[in-house]
Amino acid sequence: MAKLWGGRFSKATDTLVDDFNSSIRFDSRMYVQDIEGSMAHAEMLGRQGIIDKNDADLIVKTLAEIKKDIDDGKVEFLIDAEDIHMNIETILISRIGDVGKRLHTGRSRNDQVALDTRMYLRAQIDDIYALCEELKKTLLDIAENNLNTIMPGYTHLQKAQPITLAHHVMAYYEMLNRDCSRLMDCRKRLNVMPLGSGALAGTTYPLDREFVAEKLGFDGVTLNSLDGVSDRDFVCELAFDLSMIMTHMSRFSEEIILWSSNEFGFIDLDDAYSTGSSIMPQKKNPDVAELVRGKTGRVYGSLMGLLTMMKGIPLAYNKDMQEDKEQIFDAIDTVKMCLPVFSKMLATMKIKKDAMLQGAKGGFTNATDVADYLVKHGLPFRDAHTVVGRLVAYCIEKNTVIDALSLEELKGFSELIDEDIYSEISLETCVNQRKLVGGPAMDTMRKIIDNYKKD
Length: 455
Description:
The protein is mainly α. It has helices spanning 15-21, 24-27, 31-47, 53-71, 84-96, 109-144, 165-190, 209-215, 225-230, 233-259, 287-310, 324-348, 353-361, 367-376, 381-398, 407-411, 421-424, 427-432, 442-454; strands at 150-155, 158-164, 192-193, 220-221, 267-268, 350-351.
């Protein structure tokens, strides 16, 4: 097949080069955006009198027909047409001849691919945002049903202080809130239209860039043609945003894996979201969580690939930048695969409230509250810290817990301790006295959850 750009060349491209150079295998997914962009461009060319109005109308009409044929599976893309842009244009010319050749007036593949990529990623951001919102709703439901479910909070994976499952789950809600905010920030930055940048230096044709931008739903147009064709900040930014979403799911996955183990026993994953062993009949494996954790590295790899690709490219467009598609497409596909199954895994898991409570009773999670008790009775905090440290060491030696000690034993460590110590360091008190905004107290958490439900 003769190349649309082949006038300068005296021999055909080698078939190996055709295959190596071609991106149609992966950028064909942008056919909708490519056609929509071309339709808007053609309409603008007709309005501006750059091409005949009737020619513009025929191009728009034929492009719509091509889109329907692709939707219906009637079109086979060609490797030697290189990419989705040249494939669509080749099909157009085959159907309406010389009129189709007028479509590319005033544009380059460089600004065309930048346009398609922005439009495609914009739609993907909207999809991923919706999936994140579904996961947030799942977390809200779990939190609302577990305002009183006491569990141990950890630092260094060592039991630290008692919290509630609601408080723990809502930490991930906050992470997802930030993820959603980043997605919308990225969407805002990418939503400027590069078409009209040409290959790198714009064009002499009187294009109406603002008309095309409005037609395609952009907030404005790019202001530098060099940057318009070579900017891939928005691709890297989205890859980072997707990496952060995966980071948050991976952290939670690690906890789900631990919690579902016999050693923790905090949850039981639903059979529909677990797998078995080919040899050990008793096994119930948290494969969904493990795969989310594993696929996180895959998305990180896409981010690093993009950053590495861009780091040494001079202005303006270079063929290296074709590599952005596979990286960001794979990251998008991975995140869109993980979010819904992760959400359903959480929604269907059984929470073992008694096991969580028993977990909070071990590990001296109320030791800080003993120190606070002494401080409230006049002892400086550093001295209180030392007293409670000795108290914990005594309990470890006696294989007991603070709550189980007699008042006489407790007074042996400080005369400031009285009978009210037992109620003051109960797990319920430890949790519900932490009423500051951001704390785990039931009333505090209920207000936060109610506020989020109104949003």
